[in-house]
Amino acid sequence: MKCFQCLHFKPSETYPKLGVCGLSNEAVLGVGEACEKVSSKFEVLRDKLKRDGWLYCVSCRKLITTEDELLEHLDEVSADFLIDEFAWEDLPASD
To answer: What's the number of domains the chain is made of?
Structure first.
C-alpha cells in the first residue's frame, strides 16, 4: 500500500502527490511505501460521502457524489487536505 492510499495522508491541493502524514506530521511523497500504521480510508470516505453528499478528487478536480465514483477515484480522494498558506506565491503576478 502507498501513502496516498492511507487515511492519514493529507495531499497538497497544488501538488497532489506531495502531502503530510497526519500521524507523524512529516512531509511525505504520496507514491512512497506506507508505514506500518497505514489505515484504509474507504470506510471513512464512504461515511463522509453519505454525511456531506460529496467529496473532491484532487487529481481530476471533480466532485465525487456516488459510491461508485468513490471506488473509481479512491486513490485520489482524501478525507482532509493540506492547506498551503503560501500557495499564492506559486501564482504568476498579473498587471
So the answer is: 1
The answer as to whether 59 is a domain residue is: yes
Residue 61 is part of which domain span?
3-88
38 closest CA partner among 60, 75, 68, 8: 8
Task: Kindly state whether residue 95 falls inside one of the protein's structural domains.
Answer: no
Strands 18-21 and 27-29: antiparallel
Checking 86-92 for CB contacts under 8 A at 24+ apart, the result is 87/13, 87/14, 90/14
Cα gap 74→83, rounded to integer Å: 20
pLDDT digits (tens, 9 = 90+) for 7-57: 888 888 777 788 888 888 888 887 878 888 877 788 888 998 999 898 888
